[in-house]
Structure formats: C-alpha cells, structure tokens
Amino acid sequence: MRKPSPSSCLPGPPSLAPQLPEPGEAKRGEQGHLGYLLRQASVALRTRMERALADLEVTPPQFVVLTMVGAYPGLSNADLARLSLLKPQTVSVIVGNLKRSGALVSRPHPVHGRIRQLALSETGERSLARCRRRVDALERRLAAGLSAAEEAAVRRWLVSVALESD
C-alpha cells in the first residue's frame, strides 16, 4: 500500500506532488539504480538487525565490533575501524562502551605498549553468540529463495564491488 506523500496530507486542494513509490516499485524496484538499490537493501537489513538485537541492548555497529574482535583477537582500535568500516572516533566510543559493559578486554601490545589489543571477555563471547543466532536467522531469511549457486554469485558480486578501486 502506498503512503501518501507529505504534501497530500495537507489541507486544501490536492497537491501536484507525485505519490512516493514503496520499496520494490518504480525506481525503488528493479528499474532503480544499482547503488540506490544496494543502499535501500542495506538500510532495510540494518533496521531488521536493530529490531532483532534491541532487547539484547546491542546495536548493529556494536555487533560488528564484537564479530570482528571475536574473529581477529588482538586487534587495535585502528585495525578495528578499518575492518568494521566505521570511523575511528565511532570505534573508540563503541570500544569504550563495550569495555565498560564487560564485553571487551584490552591489554598492551607486547612491542608497542601504547597500542591496546582487544579481545572478547567471556561476557562478550556469550553476548556475541546470542546476537549471532539472531543475525544468522535474518541472513537465512535474506537468502531464502536463492539456490546455493545464486547465493555464491551474489556473494562474489558483492565482494567484487567492494574490491573495485577507482
């Protein structure tokens, strides 16, 4: 069902503003630009992740940080920012919050003492496992209807887009 455009909700004569298409319609559908469609899909997935993780009190960026630290223990904040595609300042805030909650621990780098290496605590491992189950369910829904070969093709294409340099 289409939502009325904001101007069509105003009192007075009918507006000349067009009806806004819903996701999947017109330029928000298969006729749309690939970049826009990628962003639309990304926003939809992030919204679903926010809802799925909300009662665990974990945000999608916190989930990404927990995932990357779990996969690559010993990361610095700078490494984590590059891997998680988040700004260093954002990572610093997230790491601080996760350390205060007991999900992350840090220790000095054995050679470069000013660099702190991050690892999941037991609390962080349990939190990540709970989050992972929910996100895995979302990803299964995302891939529903795709054959294994189609899913592999989508994954290859997404990686190639990320690797392409200007």
Automatic annotation (TrEMBL):
Signal peptide per UniProt: none
Alphabetical list of InterPro entries matching this protein: HTH_MarR-typ, MarR/SlyA-like, WH-like_DNA-bd_sf, WH_DNA-bd_sf
A molecular function (GO) term: DNA-binding transcription factor activity
GO process terms (BP): response to stress
Domain of life according to the entry: Bacteria
Biased composition (Low complexity): 1-10
Domain HTH marR-type intervals: 31-163
KW DNA-binding (keyword) present: yes
Keywords of the record: DNA-binding
Transit peptide in keyword set: no
Pfam family, one: MarR_2
Region listing for Disordered, in residue ranges: 1-32
Protein name, UniProt field: DNA-binding transcriptional regulator, MarR family
Organism encoding this protein: Tistlia consotensis USBA 355
